[in-house]
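User: Before I run my own analysis I want an independent prediction to cross-check against. Here's the chain; please return only the structure tokens and, at the end, one sentence I can use as a sanity check.
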Amino acid sequence: MQKQVDKVFFSQLEALRESADLSAISIIAGKGLTAPVFCDGKQPDGLDESGMSTAFDRAALNAEYMRVVQQPDAGSHRDVQALKTQMDVLSGMERDLRMRYRTRSRMSAHGIARLKSHGLADGPIARGALQLVKLLMDAQ
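Assistant: Structure tokens:
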């Protein structure tokens, strides 16, 4: 397992930290919140599908996660947790940004679809969380 922080993850966290600092300075100055800026130095466009995918690219993290999960001797439970945390933070940042551009009806449809998928026997809760817990338990 490669023991380093993912470049996209690190860049986005640094940009988020800087953006938060700029917003705090702006609020103290009485100017209000500033628009978020991500690692490419631009304000993201939630309607630019390819740009959003690039800004929050998790392909390398996903591949490494699958390799470690499928080959238990390829990494430890800490490696799995580190990879999963990076993927979750990036996907959360992307989801939060995308939600800013959704209409109320789209948000409702998204919420219903998410609940429906969570209710499936092989949905993300059963497949993701349970698989991770079992992997961690087997690693001890």
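Sanity check: The chain has six helices and no strands.
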